[in-house]
């Protein structure tokens, strides 16, 4: 007898869903039967990219994907987004906090803005989305927030990014306790080096050195990350909460 994950009738909101891991998560949840809300910040091509993904998904199943703009660092924008999602979709069942930026620089050279902008999006943005997302989330739902191997390894030049991601992982442990009375689970994932546009900016020599720490000897894929997020939101993970799941090919550096 096969085991299938069927999220029919559920609604998933994915932040930073216009590209990379976020877009892959949206597609994965949609294939599992969920309706999806693709958040984007409205910067550059993100609006057009998110709309294009929603259009493709709606061809597969009509009226099951929408794109919504909000800079997660802006509390008012997040409140407006959640109100719109409540009005258009009736609420959410799953919140995937994926939106993130990077502004790498050594501690000595990092500007106040490079520090604060990463904290605002990567950490405070998760706070905003959890706080206001829980207001429109149905009982029995799930939250998954994207942390990082950087929070564990402390990579050179990532004081801002590593601090934010460590905070995200700690925040999920708190949320898991506070939301448990509503049977809402909250977990984090900590991806390693994943083959995305962001990873492509890493110099080849640095990537080669990184892979020496990975027993599987390759980069991860967005699909492999999305599959773990899907599991954590599914009934198969009904007793998993307050955890950080590492997705890193066995990295122990």
Briefly, what is this?
The chain has 253 residues and is α/β, with parallel strands linked by helices.
Number of helices: 8
Largest sheet: 7 strands, parallel
Percent of residues in helical segments? 40-55%
What is CATH's topology name? Rossmann fold
Number of domains: 1
Q: Give the overall shape, derived from the CA principal axes.
A: globular
Topology overview:
Elements (H helix, E strand, L loop, with lengths): L10 E4 L5 H12 L3 E6 L5 H15 L4 E5 L5 H15 L2 E6 L14 H25 E10 L3 H4 L5 H20 L6 E7 L12 H8 L10 H12 L10 E4 L6
Parallel strand pairs: 1-2, 1-4, 2-3, 4-5, 5-6, 6-7
Helix pairs in contact: 1-8, 3-4, 4-6
Keywords:
253 residues; alpha/beta; Rossmann fold; 8 helices; globular
Structure description:
With 253 residues, the protein is α/β, with parallel strands linked by helices. The chain has a single domain, classed as Rossmann fold (3-Layer(aba) Sandwich). Helix content is 44%, strand content 17%. The protein contains eight helices and seven strands, in the order βαβαβαβαβααβααβ. Strands 3-2-1-4-5-6-7 form a seven-stranded parallel β-sheet, with helices on both faces. Strand 4 (92-97), helix 4 and strand 5 (137-146) form a beta-alpha-beta unit. Helix 4 packs parallel to helix 6. The protein is globular. The N and C termini lie far apart (40 Å). The relative contact order is 0.14. The mean pLDDT is 96.
């Amino acid at each position: 007898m096969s085991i299938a994950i069927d999220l029919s009738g559920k609604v998933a909101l994915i932040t930073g869903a216009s590209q990379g891991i976020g877009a892959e998560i949206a597609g994965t949840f949609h294939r599992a039967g969920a309706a999806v809300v693709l958040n984007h910040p409205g910067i550059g091509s993100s609006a057009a990219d998110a709309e294009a993904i929603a259009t493709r998904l709606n061809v597969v199943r009509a009226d099951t994907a929408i794109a919504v703009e909000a800079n997660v660092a802006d509390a008012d924008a997040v409140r407006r987004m959640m109100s719109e999602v409540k009005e258009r979709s009736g609420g959410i069942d799953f919140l995937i906090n994926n939106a993130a930026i990077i502004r790498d620089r050594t501690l000595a050279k990092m500007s106040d803005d490079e520090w604060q902008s990463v904290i605002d999006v990567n950490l405070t943005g998760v706070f905003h989305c959890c706080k206001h997302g829980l207001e429109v989330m149905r009982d029995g739902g799930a939250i998954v927030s994207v942390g990082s191997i950087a929070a564990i390894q402390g990579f050179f030049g990532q004081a801002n990014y590593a601090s934010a991601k460590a905070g995200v992982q700690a925040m999920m442990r708190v949320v898991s306790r506070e939301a448990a009375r509503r049977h809402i689970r909250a977990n984090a994932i900590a991806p390693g080096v994943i083959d995305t546009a962001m990873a492509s900016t890493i110099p080849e020599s640095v990537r080669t050195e990184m892979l020496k720490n990975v027993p599987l000897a390759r980069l991860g894929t967005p699909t492999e990350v999305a599959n773990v997020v899907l599991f954590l939101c599914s009934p198969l993970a009904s007793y998993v909460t307050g955890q950080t799941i590492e997705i890193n090919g066995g990295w122990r550096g």
